Amino acid sequence: MFDGLPAFLAVANHKSFTAAAAEMGVSPTAMSQKIKLLEQRLGVVLFQRTTRRVALTDAGTSLFARLGPALAEVEVALATLGDYRGRPSGRLRLTAPRPSGSWLLPSIVARMAEQYPELAVEVSLDDAFVDLVAAGFDAGIRLGDAIEKDMVRVPITKQTAWAIVAAPSYLARAGRPRKPEDLLRHRAIRQRMIATGVVYRWELERQGKSMTVDVPGSIVVDDVGLMVALAIAGAGLAYVLDEAVADAVADGRLERVLEPFVTPGPGFCLYFPARTQEQPKLKALVEVVKGVRAEEHPARAKPASGAAGKE
To answer: Residue 36, Cα to own-chain centre: how many angstroms?
Structure first.
């Protein structure tokens, strides 16, 4: 009855027969055959295939939406067997925003791999909001105010520091902004939020009062790494996670501006469904996160609400 369903879930998650085949340790041809046999058995087409992309049909979308939670329940049941072994094992799938990949995740993932070699850790970086259960993830990392209320959350950072930065070459041409109103005479590298499609309005604070500024600019991107690279190239001002520009500021490629007006925002949290919190692998992850938080991530010093940064 379940023959072919693991293959279906793998292709649906990866949107690629090749990637799904690699995950399951079979050839793309074998993976395609599994899906073909499943479609014949069910009497419906599950995927639309072209030479460039693989997409779920309406029937496939419906099946995927129902199988995701069911598979999560099966994984919970299997994971509880780890209690009898006393060690977490299997696979831990974690989703996190791209900016966390270079400074927040390495110490957590490295420590998990060192302390629990029987556990495979898989990390996916995605700035958009992710439905953990539907996408097959065990846990995620996002800014605290972006996490659904019914999720268990474990703080990683107390606060998140943000910065407005520009290259010395840009500041030499355009001048250094001294107050928020000056931004309207500058050029921004603007960010379109992946989850909402909205171009972010910079969130600042003056004398305890919050304010937003829609800084003009002809460049709009949806990737923090590209924003930083463009700022270093002198393309304009960028509002980014401070950790993302710490090295560039330290070596002089970027300079912070308007620091008194850029205030701390909510910190990053680990989160996962409450019903899975007794799984050995999640208990292990929580303990590692708490240890890393105590050792490496004291509050540094934004925008509120966000997956990758501010959503």
So the answer is: 33
Amino acid, res. 75: E
CB 108 within 8 A of CB 296: no
- Which pTM value belongs to this model? 0.64
d(CA 247, CA 102): 12
- pLDDT tens for 217-230 read 999 999 889 999 99
Higher pLDDT, 258 or 298: 258
CA distance 196 to 214: 17
HSE (side-chain half, CA atoms, 13 Å) at 59: 10
Q: Where are the beta strands (DSSP E) in 189-295?
A: 189-191, 202-206, 209-213, 219-221, 238-241, 255-257, 265-266, 268-273
Q: Determine the 3-state secondary structure of 152 from DSSP.
A: strand
H helix intervals, 149-223: 168-174
Q: What is the pLDDT of residues 188-202, one digit of tens each?
A: 999 998 777 899 999
